[in-house]
Amino acid sequence: MSGAKILVVDDERAILKLMQIALKGHGYEVLEASSGEEALVVASTKRPDLAVIDWGLPDMEGIEVLRRLREWSQMPVIMLTVRDAEEDKIAALDAGADDYVVKPFGMGELLARIRVALRHAARVQDEPVIEAAGLAIHLAERRVELNGEAVKLTPIEYDLLKALAQNAGKVVTQRQLLRHVWGDVDPDNAAHYLRVYIGHLRKKLEDDPSRPWRIVTEPGVGYRLAVEPPEA
């Protein structure tokens, strides 16, 4: 991932300077844009490997830049935002964001999110085995192993884990998970099913189900399958 091209889209010069220094210091090539239109031009001509886009831009909202990018590009996109309301996070994820970081943010956190997004993008999408957080999900055989030991899952538990694993490191909204596992259902009425089955998975996959680290709750938004154990 060293040498990956990162497009940073923000109209605050201080943020751009900070990101330039931090990203270059970690071996990334940095491209900059201070408006939505400039970002779209840079993205189409320079073909970055990942974009970090601020929600509040002078000519259009960052989420509109994201929607227009998604018309022709699947590169990872991380949204930067001062908005921490659940509906804004869900809107960003539903529009195609891979992740979001709320301002003010720690550079260490953002760099970790970038690494996860780049790793996810580098994986072959039809890979027969997905590995994350000590898990191995064998797609062709619908078989799951935890630290080399077989884990028996029900069909619904497996489908739920598969949806999380195919997006390991990324937030998957409750609506997306419900649609993947149960089809076209009313999310308000079916949300309790999701909580129940997430609980079943945690009992089978977590070291301590009361303190889960593999399947992380993003309050009010959805769930994230961790790629690696938390640092001690």
Automatic annotation (TrEMBL):
Ion transport recorded as keyword: no
CDD domains found in the cross-reference section: REC_OmpR_KdpE-like (cd17620), trans_reg_C (cd00383)
Residue ranges constituting the Response regulatory domain according to the UniProt record: 5-118
Residues that span the membrane, as ranges: none
Matches recorded under InterPro entries: CheY-like_superfamily, OmpR/PhoB-type_DNA-bd, Sig_transdc_resp-reg_receiver, WalR-like, WH-like_DNA-bd_sf
Subcellular location: Cytoplasm
Record-linked Pfam families: Response_reg, Trans_reg_C
Identification of the protein by name: Transcriptional regulatory protein KdpE
Organism ancestry: Bacteria, Bacillati, Bacillota, Bacilli, Bacillales
